[in-house]
Specification:
By secondary structure, the chain is mainly alpha-helical. The protein is about 60% helix and about 10% strand. It is found in: Secreted.
């Protein structure tokens, strides 16, 4: 019984430590997980590819459609409701992931 309790406490401590050390990306007053920002970048890339196929002059993604996409992580919803969300989302979509993963980018914290 003591062994099971000890193992459970160790697993719980490991989960709490790993969550606290997760990489976060800051945009204004908001913090987003690195995985969520990657998903946002995938969605904006998909939107850009669709727009380019329809009309090559349309290179920008409609961030209103990104906010309406059900695949967008829920943690972006407060940002989508904020005024100026398209600028914030475009900055997040431009975060360099390879640099962020090694925490060499100012907006990325938690390494």
């Amino acid at each position: 019984m003591k062994t099971i309790l000890s193992i459970a406490l160790m697993v719980l401590a490991l989960c709490l430590v790993s969550e606290a050390q997760a990489v976060k990306v800051q945009e204004g007053d908001f913090y987003f997980s690195l995985e969520s920002v990657k998903k946002l970048q995938e969605l904006t890339a998909e939107g850009s590819n669709v727009n380019r196929m329809q009309n090559p002059r349309l290179t920008s993604t409609s961030f209103a459609s990104v906010c309406a996409n059900p695949s967008l992580p829920q943690e972006f919803m407060p940002l989508c409701m904020k005024r100026g969300a398209s600028m914030s989302l475009s900055r997040l979509a431009a975060v360099p992931m390879d640099i962020c993963e090694i925490c060499a980018f100012a907006a990325c914290t938690g390494c």
